[in-house]
Amino acid sequence: MRNASQQHGFQPAASWKNLRLRADLLRRVREFFHRREFLEVETPILSADTVVDRHLDPFCVNAEPNRRKLWLQTSPEFCMKRLLAAGAEAIYQITRAFRQDERGPLHNPEFTIVEWYRKGDGPDEGMQLLGDLCEELLERGPVGRVSYREAFGRHVGLDPHMVGTEALVSAVRQQGIEPPQNLSVDDRDGWLDLLLVELVQPHLGNTKPVIVYDYPASQAALARIRPDEPPVAERFELYASGIELANGYHELVDPAELRLRNAQNNRKRQADGKQPLPERSRLLAAMQSGLPSAVGVALGFDRVVMLSAGEKSLDAVIAFPLDRA
Amino acid sequence: MATYSTSDFRKGLKVQMDGDPYLMIECNFVKPGKGHALYKCKLRNLVRGTVIDRTYKSGDSIEAADVEELEAQYLYRQGDTFVFMDNENYEQYELSAEQVDDAWKYIKEGMNCGMVLFNNNPLTLTPPNHVVLRVEYCEPGAKGNTATNVTKPVKFETGAEIPCPAFVEIGQLVKIDTRTGEYIERVKE
Fold first, then answer.
1. Are strands A144-147 and A210-216 parallel, antiparallel or unpaired?
2. CB proximity A179 to B under 8 Å
3. Cβ contact (<8 Å) for B35 and A196?
4. Which one of A52, A75, A102 makes the best mutation probe of the B interface by having the most chain B beta carbons within 10 Å?
5. Same domain assignment for residues B101 and B137
6. CB contact under 8 A, A182 and B6
């Protein structure tokens, strides 16, 4: 039996109006970086290396049976940092990234990332550049800044760096939030994320886009940790209308620290019942040879198009989202 | 027992928790870019109709429920037992008055109803949205009163008593909305 939707199943999910807006925003991204003398680069989507993150699941591709495993990138960060180590000053690319099991109104397992790096930048310059790009693309005026600690204090009423995990657990219960049944009471970051998603994120960037900075050190990913009291990760994220749009790091350059974090992440992955990911990579070699100080940022391009179009779902701005791919 | 893990979660999934079947009526995937993936779900209890909120993290799972929806014909009533037949395979099912719930007010022999089976046992019964029933008894209405806002109790052939406008008379056919239990209109023979 064929019904109307099957007969028209070849059609795109996005309107032509939104696809034209998408093309226009792509052009504006290129012009933005061209004006600032960034070099557009291309790096492999299919790679022998993959980011070792507790919560990112890459697609594994058996391109060469009985030989090495290859991975679809979850972001282009490894290869772009290798270019930095090889002498790049300022580079950007617009590419596809892939993350398993990420599907919802704000997620498609295949999505478009705009990612850039500039040598010599610190967090302040990095946030400034991200803010300028956001102003250019979203046209919602200058971008504000708020620290993770301030945002948490304002909307949860707790100091996320100082309180014990029990205080986070009781805040969840007091607010009537239903926590996942097997969220362990030791999983501090899990409780922080739950509070962030439920109580903080919905308020971020509603009047104007905002950059949240200085994340808990336990959520540094590949950002440097600044040895303040308490230490914080030099990581920042851009939010508009309660939606996370970009993530930036003052990049970790210490290979020993990278090895340590990879091992930690794999231990947590295994505790979560996930496959460990390869810890050795060419990024490690690049860091050993000397990765210059830099800031790198990844922007979820589809979400920018979605907000710019006034849509509520990524499917409205992607020609062929997963169900039609 | 079959289970669904978070990567199978979607609207329309039928699951069981604490022995009760639930329908997943909403499933929202939320994930901070570098954080825990969470699935915020709304589930409707298929017995009680209540809706609960549950949050799952990736890798969690819920037991699958063997729930089947079918069309069944009402055959007859024997005391407190109502007998139905699956129109596809002629399988007969006996439902208690409790399972039939309010539906007894609207069902007549030969009528097709929606039935939900949980582990092959009848769980709920849904009569058609609109049914036409014959008036068995009511007080006579004032002649010429066509107002629909003046009602009187009217007893139908099923034994149900439903308030109807004063102009409704014994022997007439009346259409009832089974979802609200309200009078809609008179129907010609």
1. parallel
2. yes
3. yes
4. A102
5. no
6. no
The topology under which CATH files domain A9-143+208-324 is BirA Bifunctional Protein; domain 2 (3.30.930)
Based on the fold, state whether residues B109 and B145 are members of the same structural domain: no
- Residues of A numbered 144-173 whose beta carbons fall under 8 angstroms of chain B's beta carbons: which are they? none
What pLDDT, in 10s, does the model give residues A223-232? Answer: 999 999 999 9
pLDDT in tens, A296-322: 999 999 999 999 999 999 999 999 999
Report the CATH number that the domain containing residue B157 is assigned in CATH.
Answer: 2.40.50.140
Instruction: Please give the radius of gyration of chain A, using alpha carbons only, rounded to the nearest integer.
Output: 20
Last-in-domain residue among B64, B92, B116: B64
Q: Which residue has the tokens 């719930």?
A: B101
| A73, A45 contact by CB (below 8 A) | yes
Of B100, B126, B152, the one marking the end of a domain is B126
Alpha carbon distance B38, B60 (integer Å): 10
- Domain around B100: 67-126
Alpha helices in chain B (DSSP H): 97-100
Task: Could you list the beta-strand ranges (E) of chain A.
Answer: 39-40, 46-47, 60-61, 70-72, 90-98, 110-119, 144-147, 210-216, 225-226, 232-240, 243-250, 294-300
Picking from A52, A133, A124, A40, the residue whose alpha carbon sits closest to that of residue A83 is A40
Structure tokens at A126: 């990095």
The tokens for B148 are 């629909």
Distance, CA of A146 to CA of A211 (rounded, Å): 6
Average pLDDT of chain A?
94
How many domains is chain B partitioned into structurally? 3
Q: What is the CATH number of the domain that holds B45?
A: 2.30.30.30
- Which chain B residues are within 8 Å of A193, Cβ to Cβ? 32, 35-36, 38
What tens digit of pLDDT does each residue of A149-176 get? 999 999 999 999 999 999 999 999 999 9
Q: What is the SS3 assignment for A235?
A: strand
